[in-house]
Amino acid sequence: MYLATNTDNQFLIFFDDFLHNQVLWTAITAWAIAVIAKAFVTLVSQRRLPLESFLGPGGMPSTHTSPIAGMAFMVGFVEGFDSTYFAIGIVLMSVVMYDASGIRRAAGNHAKAINMIFKGLLEREQIGTAQLVELRELLGHEPIEVAGGAIIGFLTAFYIYSAGIFAPIL
Predict the structure, then answer these.
(1) Under DSSP, is residue 61 helix (H, G, I), strand (E, B) or coil?
(2) What is the CB neighbour count within 10 angstroms for residue 83?
(3) pLDDT in tens, 84-102
(4) Which pTM value belongs to this model?
């Protein structure tokens, strides 16, 4: 006969808590929905489906914004929109959104300019092909792409909370 030990019980409690963590699963679900949506938008707009459209930066919607927005809004639903936890989530969401549409987008524009300079030098034979390094140009997002990610995150949180999906079993 097998007797459950205290350690076994703690693991089961941890595992149950993990499986029913609405905030975590909302973030994961929002990310997955955004990845699928991004691949679909790429397929429709470019008539091709490159692997980087699933996990690469840039594109519609932002797959960085959707999980952080889903997390922040689910924290609001679970803990209250007047809670310190929600405030922390909103601040983190704002930083991610600013980074996606501002800093990373500017870095992508710089990469595009640097690539043009290198191509010009190559055409004038001032550098060899061994020195040419193609920089990734699509690093950030347009503001509409970031907004799309935020909307996916919010709607995912709203649906999961309203439907009681992943809710703790009491």
Answers:
(1) coil
(2) 13
(3) 999 999 999 999 888 887 7
(4) 0.72
Question: d(Cα 97, Cα 91) in Å, to the nearest integer?
Answer: 10
The helices-and-strands tally (H runs, E runs) of the chain is 7, 0
CA distance 119 to 96: 33
- Alpha carbon 101 to chain centroid distance? 13
Measured CA to CA, the distance from residue 113 to residue 25 in angstroms comes to 40
> For residue 162, what are its two tokens?
């309203």
Domain ranges within the chain, ordered by starting residue: 19-100+143-163
DSSP state, residue 136: P
Q: Determine the average pLDDT of the residues in 144-165.
A: 93
Q: Please enumerate in sequence order all residues whose Cβ is within 8 A of that of 39, keeping only pairs 6 or more positions apart, or say none.
A: 49, 53, 54
- Mean pLDDT for the stretch of residues 66-80: 96
Please give the distance of CA 8 from its chain centroid, rounded to a whole number. Answer: 35
* b/e code 3-29 from CB counts within 10 Å (16+ = b): eeeeeeeeeeeeeeeeeebbbbbbbbb
Q: Which phi and psi (to 5°) does residue 20 adopt?
A: -110, 20
